[in-house]
Amino acid sequence: MFNFDFYNPTRVLFGQGRIKDIDRRIPADARVMVLYGGGSIKTNGTLSEVLTALGTRHVIEFGGIEPNPSYETLIQAVSLAKQHNINFLLAVGGGSVIDGSKFVAAASCYQGEATEILQSRGSKIKQALPLGVVLTLSATGSEMNSAAVITQKAIKTKSAFFSERVFPAFAVLDPTKTYTLSKHQIANGVVDAFVHITEQYLTYSVNGLVQDRFAEGLLQTLLEIGETALAEPENYDLRSNLMWVATMALNGLIGAGVPQDWSTHGIGHELTALYDIDHARTLAIVLPAMLMERKEQKHAKLLQYAQRVWNIHEGDDTERVIQAVEKTRLFFERLGVPTRLSAYGVTDIQPILSQLANHQLTALGEHRDINLAVSERVLLNCL
């Protein structure tokens, strides 16, 4: 196992009715900006609950954060936060709202040009406004980590940044807040969490036995509950487990001390930037093709995945690996998530390869050996 630091300061407030508890987690004299997306939190009553919990604090709202949060929108929130001397942010939504709020938290305190936060992948962040979260969509794990991904529409780029200063101070995880989500959104959340886990698990062994067993348990849970969670929207136990799996998938725990891949995300981000395909759906497109392309380099872990997660024990080693990858693809399809580029009207991979080259994404994967030629083969197998 590699040396590692594990640090996660986010306090999780889990369970039904926990929104009221934010009153104890935000200073009484705080000037709060509440950030959210398209406005569903107004119609389903969540915003009203949040405002009631905030009581007499000075509160302003900023809505309209997109599913792929854009720099162009978020910089408006930064300007508003500065104008009103905001000193606490509260993100109410899913991963996009949380990611966007992390950028606002950092950019509101940044002395230079805010794009430098993205260009430096967060290394230039010296301070940020404190941030709390009320989670309404189980998917990205952003509620309990220090990462964010922001889109710059003008240049069709998705950029990730990382900083300990944007860890949420707290996260309210109330599974009932996911009851009104569409099957499309829930399916995306299952896929997103699943691929987050595989990016940290399906690499090569460093004898991280604890991390492997955690990852395998999370994957098995998603396989057990994923389809039923779509069919039974108000099943509290199912939605509780889905919410907690998605959070655990990317809070740093299963990735501590082990190699990580993230090539599926690297290519997937370009698909979203170019064609506005949902982030999770880009992952469902790329992952099976990537695993098939890398089945020799990932052979030992894929065989372990086949045996422990999919319970495949028949056939030779190669046959079991191929079965596991195909079962992964079929799981995504059963969730209603297409796994081919053609399903989204994409038939030419050259623009994607150009984007990868322009953004210097030419050494991806846990071994940094996924160059443009490898990416091209992967994308051809995604058509």
From TrEMBL:
SUPFAM superfamilies for the chain: Dehydroquinate synthase-like (SSF56796)
GO cellular component: cytosol
UniProt keywords, alphabetically: Oxidoreductase
Keyword Magnesium: no
One Pfam assignment: Fe-ADH
Cofactor requirements of the protein: Fe cation
KW Iron-sulfur (keyword) present: no
GO molecular function: alcohol dehydrogenase (NADP+) activity; butanol dehydrogenase (NAD+) activity; metal ion binding; methylglyoxal reductase (NADPH) (acetol producing) activity
Start and end residues of each Fe-containing alcohol dehydrogenase-like C-terminal domain: 187-359
Residue intervals passing through the bilayer: none
InterPro entries: ADH_Fe/GldA, ADH_Fe_C, ADH_Fe_CS, BDH-like
Domain of life, source organism: Bacteria
Domain Alcohol dehydrogenase iron-type/glycerol dehydrogenase GldA: 9-175
UniProt family annotation: Belongs to the iron-containing alcohol dehydrogenase family.
Name of protein: NADP-dependent alcohol dehydrogenase
Species assigned in the record: Agitococcus lubricus
